[in-house]
Design brief:
With 139 residues, the chain is an all-alpha fold. Helix content is 82%, strand content 0%. The chain folds into 2 domains: 65 residues, no CATH class; 73 residues, no CATH class.
Amino acid sequence: MLERARLTVQNWFLQGVSRGRGDVLTVGRASIAAALAYLVSGFIWDHEHPFFSSIVAFIIIGFGIEKKMRKIVEMSCGVMLGVLLGELARATIGSGTWQILVVVFCAGMFARFIDSSNLFGFQVAIQSLLVMIMPITPA
């Protein structure tokens, strides 16, 4: 029994090393993209902490470059639209419990109106929610 457990752990370890070797360049590219997105977003939009761009860059590249361009476009556009809707809503109606309800509902419905993709809808709604719940950065 102990020998079987040792072989299981050894097999798990060797598979992990193999996965790491196979994905080192992809994870490296995603990490560089996240850092560059943070840097560029800080310069372009003058945000003190432009974390959305880093998150999106890493998600899009992730642990494997997605072969389907449609998914990349859906995710990118969904994130941009969600952040835009969240920022507009927070600037006009503020942020709080009822505002989150309204914004997430409207963002989700608007996303479903634009496209049938679940990925697009999730990104629009989630990003608008994140904007609404994040504290406003002092100017």
